[in-house]
């Protein structure tokens, strides 16, 4: 079984016309998985609803605790892209866990979004990689500690 932890970020943002602002809504993973016909057994645990720029060390410790205490060995985490790399590094060293972080540069609820592609990539990768911590973004799997977000280019790249 796969554990899906949601922490917020752009992937789950909702646009409100009245206020012209984004807010983090309900997790989009169940809808994406249902629409894609995912048959793998998985369990959802909404952990946080934060923009990743608002994530604290205490939040990262909570994510690490949830991963360490999970019965599942394979964990997919949706996360905001701005500090996803930092959270990935904070999860390093958990034994017998394959942890995949992914997110989106545009909300999953938008017609044009990278969210669905990134979730599909992450789902396939978390099932096939050995224990460790990884990021799935822009069609590439990056090991934790060896990736950064290039804001100007709007993509992730190896370092």
Report on the architecture of this protein.
- The mean pLDDT is 94.
- The chain has one domain (2-158): L-asparaginase, N-terminal domain (Rossmann fold, 3-Layer(aba) Sandwich), CATH 3.40.50.1170.
- By secondary structure, the chain is α/β, with parallel strands linked by helices.
- The chain is globular and about 45 Å long.
- The chain has helices at residues 29-36, 57-69, 84-90, 115-128, and strands spanning 2-8, 13-16, 21-24, 42-50, 74-78, 98-102, 132-137, 140-143, 147-150, 155-158.
- A hairpin with a 2-residue loop joins strand 7 (132-137) and strand 8 (140-143).
Features:
six-stranded mixed beta sheet, L-asparaginase_N, hydrolase, two-stranded antiparallel sheet, Asp/glu_Ase-like_sf, asparaginase activity, Rossmann fold, L-asparaginase_N_sf, about 160 residues, alpha/beta, globular
